[in-house]
């Protein structure tokens, strides 16, 4: 998806009445899909991936961590999954550790082949991958996020702590 399409998708998912999860949120279906993602990444990288799920007081559902020793550059890859519309974010080391995947690649922390493996898994499993650079842009939606952060971002809206 283009940046314009991704922004349109995020605006479409943004519901100021439902900050932590969408109106028709199905925790079971989200958990099953997330489990499938964990298994897929473990198979693709040939390593056990640490994960945490069903994050409390957050619009993020969970995270999968591909261990550093399973990646080409020796930096772990973290995949964050939102409770909204199967949105996902891929980052090297941790969210915010780099300015995005482009920055991580330029600094030698993320190999394009590893990134492609993760992006392919996400796409084939029905996730919508949103670049960290776009998620860190200023939030311009209808939800009242300024009570949570001075400068809310799209990451705040779809992956951040809500309460």
Describe this structure in a few short sentences:
Helix content is 36%, strand content 15%. By secondary structure, it is α+β, with helices and mostly antiparallel strands.
Strand order of the largest sheet: 1-2-3-4-5
Low confidence ranges: none
Q: What value does the average pLDDT take?
A: 93
Distance between the termini: 31 Å
The largest sheet, given as strand count, sense and whether it forms a barrel, is: 5 strands, mixed
Question: How much strand?
Answer: 15-25%
- Element string (H = helix, E = strand): HHEEEEHHEHH
Structural class of the helix and strand makeup?
A: alpha+beta
Question: Residue share in helices?
Answer: 25-40%
Gyration radius (Cα, Å) is: 15 Å
Please, could you describe this protein's structure?
This protein has six helices and five strands. Strands 1-2-3-4-5 form a five-stranded mixed β-sheet, with helices on one face. By secondary structure, the chain is of the alpha+beta class.
Itemize the secondary structure elements and their pairings.
Layout lengths: L2 H11 L13 H19 L4 E4 L6 E7 L10 E6 L4 E6 L8 H6 L5 H13 L3 E2 L2 H4 L18 H6 L4
Parallel strand pairs: 4-5
Antiparallel strand pairs: 1-2, 2-3, 3-4
Helix pairs in contact: 2-4
């Amino acid at each position: 998806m283009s940046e314009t399409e991704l922004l349109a998708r995020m605006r479409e998912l943004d519901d100021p009445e439902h900050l932590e999860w969408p109106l028709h949120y199905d925790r079971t279906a989200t958990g099953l899909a997330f489990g499938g993602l964990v298994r897929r990444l473990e198979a693709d990288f040939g390593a056990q991936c640490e994960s945490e799920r069903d994050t409390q007081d957050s619009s993020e559902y969970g995270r999968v961590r591909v261990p550093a020793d399973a990646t080409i550059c020796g930096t772990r890859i973290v995949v964050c999954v939102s409770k909204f519309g199967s949105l996902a974010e891929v980052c090297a080391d941790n969210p915010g550790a780099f300015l995005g995947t482009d920055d991580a690649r330029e600094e030698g922390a993320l190999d394009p082949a590893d990134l492609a493996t993760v992006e392919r898994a996400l796409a084939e499993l029905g996730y919508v991958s949103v670049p960290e650079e776009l998620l860190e842009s200023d939030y311009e939606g209808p939800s009242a996020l300024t009570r949570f952060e001075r400068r809310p971002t799209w990451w705040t809206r779809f992956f951040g702590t809500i309460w």
